[in-house]
Amino acid sequence: MASALGPRAPLPLARLRGARALAMAPPRRFALELPGCGLAHFAVGGDAAGALDPRVAALLGPPGRSYSLCVPEAPGGGCAARVRAARLHQRLLHQLRRDPLRRCQLRRLLCYGPGGGAGGVQRGFLLRDPGDSPDTRRALFSLLGDAPGGPRLGEFVGDARQQVWQSLWELRDGAEWRQVGPRERVLAAPEPALHPVVPDLPSSGVFPHREAARAVLEACIPFIPEAQAVLDLVDQLPEQVHKGKFPVIAFEGLDATGKTTVTQSVSDTLGAVLLKSPPACISQWRKIFDDEPTIIRRAFYSLGNYIVASEIAKESTKSPVIIDRYWHSTATYAIATEVTGGLQYLPPAHHPIYQWPRDLLRPDLVLLLTVSPKKRMQRIEGRGVERTREEAELEADSMFRQK
């Protein structure tokens, strides 16, 4: 169960030698999630464009102190590098939520290039210490560890006029943390036409074809043995399958909207075969993949859709087919999780990210079930079953539900 990245449980980041996991090389642009689900964009150094948003200045400047931590991918590392970065980002989140850093405020932060583009986004965090305690910096130094060449840490300082600068810290020779390079001014940056993660989504969660999802699970084999079992099933599938003469109907909706009851009833009425995604042959591994970052979770569910598609092709030659969840859920959860901020930051209608995968069998009809939030909560509370992390987030975060 172990690998160069360690077991599934969170590990101290200090031993991820050579990772340079938190380096942030200006000029870069940043998207910071604000209270109320807004986003503010700012830049450091040569990329800076104008007066800083007062809300950003309040989060970066005095009386507290803030730190930036973002996880870059190794240049040219491909799918394996994206997987490593995603797992490191998740472990970093676990560490930042523990003592002594849990007293600080934690916000999602994205670092991206002015031109955007897939693979150019670094996911990370802004850590704000309202009390500006020197213990916070020491705790971060301890957390980031002694990797050769040293991961770098961004630290923001400001003045009473709401001017803010960023300094970078780096561990030298595995022994001493020092500030590196000049202190850079932080100023506003223009809001991009699309949310910075959107160009990255086809490689990080909304996979356009089977091979993209397959490559992710292939990179997971060293530390998730069950990934090989999933791939063995996928590799038995034909490259392309086609629907039979009978109709195929998919039912979608949030948890506790009645999909199980309705799909069973419609299936009985039509004499249809009832299928679910993920299919039974891989459902026993859901908990394992649900505990992993978005890119790994969505690859698992995406490949589950292709297994279901093969079953649909076979069964629809003999009878109607009803599906309880399909590609729509896989894509929806990925977009809602990765696109920070409110509804206004979702990709616009007809954006290519919403296009059906070119090699996945399509249903004839898709029905979306809805129910009032109050009724949905009553149903969830009455179930008494263990929920996934995303199901728990649906209950706690109204904006996530809306997205």
TrEMBL record:
GO terms for cellular component: mitochondrion. It is found in: Mitochondrion. It catalyses: a 2'-deoxyribonucleoside 5'-diphosphate + ATP = a 2'-deoxyribonucleoside 5'-triphosphate + ADP; a ribonucleoside 5'-diphosphate + ATP = a ribonucleoside 5'-triphosphate + ADP; CMP + ATP = CDP + ADP; dCMP + ATP = dCDP + ADP. Keywords: ATP-binding, Coiled coil, Kinase, Mitochondrion, Nucleotide-binding, Pyrimidine biosynthesis, Transferase, Transit peptide. Pfam families: Thymidylate_kin. Its EC number is 2.7.4.14. Residues 251-393 form the Thymidylate kinase-like domain. Its main location: mitochondrion. GO terms for molecular function: ATP binding; dTMP kinase activity; nucleoside diphosphate kinase activity; nucleoside monophosphate kinase activity. Residues 380-391 have a biased composition (Basic and acidic residues). GO terms for biological process: dTDP biosynthetic process; dTTP biosynthetic process; dUDP biosynthetic process. InterPro entries: P-loop_NTPase (IPR027417), Thymidylate_kin-like_dom (IPR039430), UMP-CMP_kinase_2 (IPR014505). Residues 380-403 are annotated as: Disordered. Belongs to the thymidylate kinase family. This is UMP-CMP kinase 2, mitochondrial. It comes from Lynx canadensis. The gene is CMPK2.
